[in-house]
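quick one, two chains, predict together pls
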Amino acid sequence: MKTSDAPKNSTIKVDYLARVEGEGSLYVKIKKGQVTDARLKIFEPPRFFEAFLRGRTWKEPPDITARICGICPVAYQMSSCHAIEDAFGVKISPEIRELRRLLYCGEWIESHVLHVYMLHAPDFLGYQDVIALSKDHPEAAQRGLRMKKIGNDIVTLLGGREIHPINVRVGGFYKIPAKKRFAELLENLKWARDAAVETVRWAATLPMPDFEQDYTFVALRHAEEYGMNEGRLVSNKGLDIDIHQYNHTFFEKHVAHSNALQSVMEDGSNYFVGPLARFNLNFDRLSPLAREIAREVGYEPPVTNPFRSIVVRSIETLYAFDEAIRIIEADVFPEQAAVEVRPRAGTGYGCTEAPRGILFHRYKFDERGTILDAQIVPPTSQNQSTIERDLRNFVPRNLDLSDEELTWKCEQAIRNYDPCISCATHFLKLDIERES
Amino acid sequence: MAEIKKPKLAVWKFASCDGCQLSLLDCEDELLAVADSVQIANFPEASREIIKGPYDISLVEGSITTPHDAERIHRIRRQSKLLITIGACATAGGIQALRNFTSVDSYVTTVYATPAYISTLKKSTPISEHVPVDFELRGCPVNKYQLLEVINAYLNGRKPNTPPHSVCMECKSKGLVCVAVAQKTVCMGPLTHAGCGALCPEYNRGCFGCYGPKETPNTASLAAWWREHGEKNTDIMRSFRGFNAYAEPFRKESEAHENI
């Protein structure tokens, strides 16, 4: 811990945290140089998805749950489809599975690039936003915007539109676009893959605060692929479970200062989901190019400084472009847009890797496929208590900063998680209180 | 010569998914041009910098669902020359307005362990139920090109060109085969406000009403046609209880199919 002559007791306030999705605030109380309280307050209004899903039919969750989040609707569509297919014993074809992965790559790209260039990079370079950043770094800003657009092009082609795609259904898709439309994406994707390499190199030059922490990273692990559509839930601390065991390992708790339920592990400890967790647990499953560029900039597991997530997110972006190109070049498309689905009574589980981390869905159906009960656990509610822990650990080392600088650094520390508060209420105002 | 003052643009969020304001950031080709022609004065999703009002244009996303928000919207109205709602939540109450048909208390206890921590209104309501609104842009989500059109129109002192006719008009002009007639698919196209470009029929599925009611929709007639083709009342009710469930024509039609 640093010692300084700066005031040891104080309150810093930010009423509405910017450059995150949704409404939240942060409250940090400092007493005699110690953080006595750090709370991520989520005042994003509750929307009650799990309640109004009851009584709806099995066909509806992909479209309805997409509306939880405008940034990662595909993640909601994927986790809900997997859960419903699990309940009904539906097996999709390998070709449909590949196209779902392609759609998911599109969402990872648009979401990651949005965060890297537009929401997070301005913190590292001292700008209020990407518009200000673009005045001094026009090339970087333009590169980011074009990469993001190319990610969105994938979602638009396969999903119909970039926000709340309309082409996803339980069992597959409504329609498979013509083969040549995919091939038309290739030229831009290859430009973007090179741009993603540049992005990793650029992100690696950003000034990184020193903040190594001991985390429990949790991510999906698949036999062959980088965790995305499916896999077992694993951690760096020995967890290795089937997703059906999720509710035996992870628990939601309701705290007074948040409209989002916080997730913790069985022993009450917090855990970390998202790009850093996936990278640390699945480095060997990245594409050779993504691994090579990661090593070139000195990134290999374990990466335990959350500020470095901007570089890891860039590496995952590179991977997603590489993977999208692989899928399109394989040139294997489904004969049938969807497989047959027959509802039956039962409970189904789905867990996929949203850009921000694992997204868990569970549905219970009657014999006609009417939803009796639903549970949705978004990534940000799983990271929420880890974010609070980061703040408790980060602030004491940085008390020599002015209130204004410390506030901004705390915001940056929160943005390390690319928090999606709209998702989690189902975040942000910053209050730092220094008091004797 | 003094620099011409740019109009000040503010973006506000209420209960929503962020998707409609994200549409502005999704204008990858146009974003920097928009930032050249307006001063982005309050857009927390994109910037830390908050410039004080009054604002020339306020874009409002989301519906009113908490006592605090019901007051906040009045403060925003007072600071805004023009107030434009963007999307189904701000314009019709959104998917979260499904609570309006039941008791919100039962929803709170379904989702939260400690209901006393939750402050929420019984109904999710559109912005226009609280303050005068200058223009309502529909969609779940809005169409980003329509959003640019609305901003552009107001910057140039004209009315936005966002036709209030049905999705069918867009479908026909695209030369698509009617999924309702040809495949007997339940399609809300005849009742639904244009703006998406008839996306669902293009992808072999029926419209599910993201853009809400068109002007003068004949909901009863279409519901009767669905019944003739074997749809049950509960299915018809659910079709109207989507992202625009609390828009009056859809609300009334869904209620007509309740408990029968």
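Chain B touches chain A through 62 residues (CB under 8 Å).
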